Amino acid sequence: MNLHHLLQARIRAGRPVRVGLIGAGKFGSMFLSQVPTTPGVEVAVIADLDPDRAREACRRVGWDEARIGRTAFVGSGLDACAAPGVEVVIEATGSPAAGIAHARAAIAAGRHVVMVNVEADVLAGALLAEEARERGVVYSMAYGDQPALTSEMVDWARACGFQVVAAGKGTKYLPAYHTVTPDDVWGHYGLTPEEAQRAGMNPQMFNSFLDGTKSAIEMAAIANGCDLAVPADGLAFPPCGVDDLPHVLRPRAAGGMLEAEGTVEVVSSLERDGRPVFRDLRWGVYVVLKAPNDYARSCFRQYGLRTDDSGWFAAMYKPYHLIGLELGISVLSAALRGEPTGQTRAFRGDVVAVAKRDLRAGEMLDGEGGYTVWGKVVPAERSLREGGLPIGLAHRVRLLRDVPAGTMVRWADAEVPDSEAVRTRREMERRFAVPASAAAE
User: Would you identify the CATH topology of the domain 3-144+324-337?
Assistant: First the structure.
């Protein structure tokens, strides 16, 4: 609530917050659209595989030619990390391998990192955050995206003295979506392929939103950032509107569907027969909390908070998230306060690749949102015990053996080439994996 005031002080001191953006896609473009109306924030450099496309993105979101002329456009994210005067690097590529490489380069150069790339964060975020702390810089989730907004609500609840029972987001979900491929994704969005192409929409990216992979990744990020548990066999996606959050998302012993208190979960905006849920939370985030005493319980009722029938469990929610339009909060929090807007601190949840159909030895996996696998969030301890292949490493790797539909793909099932991303992931496992004995307690 003080960021604008702090930014004004930087303006008076003649020290604007200088940003390097890596990836000028949808998220990055939304951030760029806010820069002209946020005095004190300057984008010094934009890195994109196609710099001309990045320039055109700036024009499309309202930049004038003078501002474009003051900005460097480069083809390498590593060049953006090393650019002189950059204070905060935004990593918005969506590639786990690229995200890890860029984060480490930025941290080594003494830059704060805002990690839009949740895929990279779930793959190795705990290690990256530790490296940033050791270097004296901030490694942060991206405000405006659902993991950071949910983490903020969890922090609010705990700072108020409430116990967090469940936290997560809403989405559009049906069980059949797990097998959807980029070929048939647009019908589920009510679009024709031609309409989607004209809008510049990437079918594999949008398919990852639909087939459950993005939800799994975001819930793993929340679990890892907020020290929350992950359901033993993945997300249940219960149909649930905002009025029913405290009824549905409470422990089974209290009449709800949770295995235990302190769990991440995603609620669906569709009933299982496809009917819309009343007052759904498709675009928003939530936290279910528990009153610590009878006095607080009575206050819930007095002030109109939605509760379950016992009055002990209540829900707070935010109905919308504006992704890149809100990203400036992370940038300014890092630069002006030295604080992240959410940060991975543990390894509680992992996202493993699951076969969308019967896969055969010799086939090439195509990763998040593709034709071969979808991502399922499971407890990190289970992923390590069963040797699950992270979805972030299941791209362009060849299968060594058959994998039946619906089955977890394991490291031993695929030929995973050595890379910086693989080595970083393995180091993160060694440093942050909870011993099996402790996980069972």
Answer: Rossmann fold (3.40.50)
Can you say whether residue 100 is alpha, beta or left, with left for phi > 0 and alpha for psi between -120 and 50 degrees?
alpha
**What pLDDT is stored for residue 198 in this prediction?**
75
Query: What DSSP assignment string belongs to 342-401?
Result: S------EEEEEEESS-B-TTPEEE-TTSSSEEEEEEEHHHHHHHTBPBGGG-EEEEESS
Closest CA to 363 of 392, 403, 391, 407: 403
pTM of the model: 0.95
- Residue 94, Ramachandran bin (φ over 0: left; ψ between -120 and 50: alpha; else beta): left
- CA–CA separation, 134 and 287 (whole Å): 31
Assess whether pLDDT exceeds 90 at residue 406.
yes
**Mean pLDDT of all residues in 175-200:** 89
The CATH 3.90.1210.10 domain(s) of the chain lie at 349-439
Is the domain spanning 349-439 CATH 3.30.2130.30? The answer is no
Residue 440 has pLDDT above 80, yes or no: no
Q: What is the DSSP string of 147-204?
A: HHHHHHHHHHHHHTTPEEEEEEEEE---GGGGG--TTTHHHHTT--HHHHHHTT--HH
**299 CB neighbour count, 10 Å cutoff:** 13
CATH 3.40.50.720: which residues of the chain? 3-144+324-337
